[in-house]
Amino acid sequence: MSGTTAPVDTSDAAPVGVPSGGEGDSLGAYARRWWAGVRSGELGSLPIIVGLLLIAIIFQSQNDRFLTAGNFVNLIVQMAAITIIGMGIVFVLLLGEIDLSVGYVSGVAGVTAALLLIPDGAHQFSAGPAIAIALLAGVAIGTFHGLLITKIGIPSFIVTLAGLLAWNGVVLLLIGDKGTVIIQNSIVIGFANDFLPDATAWVVLILGIALYAGILLVGFRSRRKAGLPTEPMSLMALRIGGLAAAGIVVVAVANQDRGIPYVFLVITALYILWTYVLNRTRFGRHIYAVGGNTEAARRAGINVDNVKIACFAICSMMAALGGIVLASRLRSIDTNSGGGSILLYSIAAAVIGGTSLFGGRGHMKSAVLGALVIGSIDNGLGLLGLSSGTKFVVTGAVLLLAVAVDSISRKGRASSGRA
Amino acid sequence: MSNKDPILELRGVSKSFGAVQALYQVDFHVAPGQVMALVGDNGAGKSTLIKSIAGIHTIDEGDIVFEGEPVTIHGPKDAGKLGIEVVYQDLALCDNLDVVQNMFLGREETSKLRRLDETTMERRASDTLATLSVTTIRSVRQTVAGLSGGQRQSVAVAKAVMWNSKVVILDEPTAALGVAQTRQVLDLVKRLGEQGLAVVLISHNLHDIFEVADTITVLRLGQNVAEYKTTDVTQTQVVEAITAGALSKVPGHVEAEVTT
């Protein structure tokens, strides 16, 4: 079999850094295999990249403020909360489960943090403890959901649907008759409203690129030492160069305006952390296994219940963090906290980004890319002065389109025997 | 039967589910380097028997003796620690994971920072497949979804033997396979025996059994009815034992005294 007719699998399932081609494969061979994979339905992130380009072209042609530094910084801040919540959603989707409660769980956390920060003298907390308590509340909520789902056996759809109602109630109860609570703590506000000094942003970027290059090189050398097939140096250079180029553009553009918001750092750190957890730890591997074939996972001695509970806890914790970021951006919380489009946008972000609803397929980058798509549409339609109604219709259509692309590519994979 | 001592032996094992007596006084033994076929009609108790050995069911009475010592097996992990591995009929592989990931599932190797040691795992997986002369798998980084039935079965077997296992139990490994793929798997079963493992092969296909097995144990309605050396018996005799082998206890007749 030649490399072009039987490409190395680059599917979405639990990726390892290096697809193993023959030793000494050239960059061209990799490119041909990748293209053959695309044609047989292994689309990867390609549709989203194309989609983002289209979005940029369309909105820029309608309103030339879309592709400006100021709007770019706005977009980062606007999409931050759904990115973070979407990252949590990826964990439960990988299991083949769903969490419908993340919107109001984020509300509960935002309200909790805000209430703890009210300067009323008696029991005012500083930013650190207030955030920690709100996050712990998220972990507790997720653990509770997970226990109901695994130990009692209620479907996650029902548990979290009940959660959607109940946590909405808790938001209202917590706020009581206060109506709106303004957050005055400068650290919490700073998350979404303060920006890295220009020089610091560059230093962080350089450190990040060096770290990435280091990880790739160490992996390359250990594989070579063990006599395993390695990817060509040129491909590695291309990866590092690509990241560096993207990073430089982001930092340069953002620095033209207010700079890189702190929340962008938070998202990047979370992205690295969770990618590591999913791809490089036993726990992550077990999540993919449970999502792919629960019975096989159980027979392999994996404690399926614990994996599920942990994923729901992570999901709710990320929702809580998203709630705090949202409260930070709005500088206040009110009875609508956690409501509106947050829940559906977060789930849609993960799905548009390519995480399967049926479990076992998906990446952390799904949440980021999907949130970028949704954030761009929301932002662009806002610039055009269109109503929420139009936004929802368009976002719904995009979600449908993304899932359709996924379904069609899955058929492609099935017909080429790689379902 | 064999000139070696049995590595795994069951003595008088009984198991019932409520009123249903699934196993009654079953004896069975298998020695290193031996391929023992376990045959019987549907409902004869083959699956219950292997699930008892794997620790999924607990037995009501009788002894499981491993390497001369009586043991109790409470779960798949206990069985694994002893060196008993079961390859289930429905494979128990995750389609979305690749070959290496499946072979190490639940027993991943980690290095510092709890990081998965992919290099070591890939090396070991490739070596194990090579030892078993499984050459049809092009890349161990392929997802299992893209493999043929025979290749999947090979991965499942390789997964079972990688852990210094001493007894490998194969539940209908050729049930869903075509001719060429059945060939692959039977060759693999033979090699397992040649490498000194004790193999328990469950199959409905007598042709396969006569090709690879050294001994045949026949179960009928939860009881041992016959035990043969493959060389001493014909397919017809085995079929007779499966369908009409003499029972020591007739189900439904609680006090029945059946003499043979």
Number of helices of chain B: 8
Q: Give, in spatial order, the strands making up the sheet with the most strands of chain B.
A: 6-7-8-3-9-10
Give helix and strand order of chain A, one letter per element, not per position. HHHHHHEHHHHHHHEHHH
Q: Identify low-pLDDT runs of chain A.
A: 1-23
Strand order of the largest sheet of chain A: 1-2
First-last Cα distance of chain B: 22 Å
Note down, in words, how this protein is organized:
The complex is a heterodimer of chains A (419) and B (260). Chain A is mainly α and 419 residues long. Chain A folds into two domains: 46-194 and 261-415, ABC transporter involved in vitamin B12 uptake, BtuC (Orthogonal Bundle); 195-260. Helices cover 71% and strands 1% of the residues of chain A. In chain A, helix 8 (198-225) runs antiparallel to helix 9. Chain A is globular, with a radius of gyration of 22 Å. With 260 residues, chain B is an alpha/beta fold. Chain B has a domain at 8-90 and 148-244: P-loop containing nucleotide triphosphate hydrolases (Rossmann fold). Helices cover 31% and strands 24% of the residues of chain B. Chain B is built from eight helices and ten strands. In chain B, strands 6-7-8-3-9-10 form a six-stranded mixed beta sheet, sandwiched between helices. Chain B has a four-stranded antiparallel beta sheet with strand order 2-1-4-5, covered by helices on one side. In chain B, helix 5 packs parallel to helix 6 (179-194). At the A-B interface, helix 8, helix 11 and helix 12 of A face helix 2 and helix 4 of B.
